[in-house]
Amino acid sequence: GTLDWSECKLLVSDLVKETAKTHKDRGDELHAALEDPGTVQKLMVAFDGDGDGAISRDEFVQKAMQGYSLPLPPQDEPPAKRRKVDAAPQGDDEHETARLVKKEAEEAEAQQRDKVYHEKMEEVDRQHRLMVECYEKASQAHSASQFDKIKGFKAEAAEHKKLKEEAREAALQFMFQRANKDSDGTWVDLHGLQVEFALKKTGEFIDRSKADGKSECQVITGAGHHSGPGGPLIKPKVWDMLRDRNLRFTEINDGEITVHLS
């Protein structure tokens, strides 16, 4: 069978309860997520692996094993590689003021980044809804023996599926570029990405670093403190990928590693 809207709504409710246990300070956001129909829609998009508008048992199991967390705005601070705010000497008003101004600017930039990202992801959801509608029309046409219309509806569904994937790629590419805008080429930051896209970018970064003759590079996976009750998502997958490629790595801190390329 497949999961319908009501079953996905129950799944969201369970996720909210589990997330609340480890994120007690985000109760208002969790309550809003539970009441927002868009939360259910995002879950359905995430679990619908083949994009046909239905969630099969295999798709559910596969995504559940990968892990899924509620789409709450990220709270992770920028990684150490990009955070160059010196601690202000006690009593030094000038340095303290500069530190606060820089912090406010970083927070404003993060809010704007998240706003643009969510707008881009709304386009993903919109294309998914249109795709599902076309599949439903094709099914209705089949039931009504209007076989001449089925091909057209399926073609429209395929186009919306293509546009959905392009919109998802654009949203993730936007997050990647914002996180890595200050990179000097020796490190890559995977904050805010989905697992598959993060693995793709990590592989590209390592291949490029090898081609440039580097002996090591740094990968910032994030610690995954805000990934939900299932724990970090990107970090363990990146580690697995590096092991599969027989690459040694050293953990710098809970969310950053040095990869040894030679």
From TrEMBL:
Residue ranges of every copy of the Smr domain listed in the record: 188-262
Give the EF-hand domain ranges.
Answer: 35-70
Keywords, in A-Z order? Calcium
Provide the GO MF annotations for this entry. calcium ion binding
> Which stretches does the entry tag as region Disordered?
66-99
Q: Does the keyword Calcium apply?
A: yes
Q: What is this protein called?
A: Calmodulin
Which lineage do the record's taxonomy fields give for this organism? Eukaryota, Sar, Alveolata, Dinophyceae, Gonyaulacales
